[in-house]
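[Structure tokenization] protein backbone as discrete codes

[Encoding] learned vocabulary of local backbone shapes

[Begin record] amino acids and matching fold tokens:

___
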Amino acid sequence: MAGISRTGWLVVAALLALLTAVLFLMGRPPICPCGIVSLWHGTVQSNQNSQQVSDWYSFSHVIHGFIFFGLSRWLIPTRPLWVALAIAIGIEGAWEILENSPIIIDRYREVTMAYGYSGDSILNSVSDAGFMILGFLILGLSFSSCSRSGRSATI
């Protein structure tokens, strides 16, 4: 993608590897404890919710990417796009770590009907970050093509 250098992509990969390592050190399961890996799991009230590559919550992470892109072009418009993406991954990764902490998991169980919920698998958390990156890049490509075509691309 225009605007993201090789260095930028290496930073993205390093941040995703760091997120994976932190979640692993927190004791999160790499995949669903049931042993099944699937691309989509659409049943919210099940033991595979937030365990697979994608679920109903994946769409919200794409929206996070849209929001982070918009904020980055507003708050740090002169910085390279990869810097904005790295910051977005840092924020998304921090959320995934917090979301999988005992205090948040316990609170989620208290206020919802999430029977047996024990947090996300590493696969799901890293995929959530990937969906955020997808949303960020979709908007980035849209604005990049607008600026090349002469249409206004400012936020």
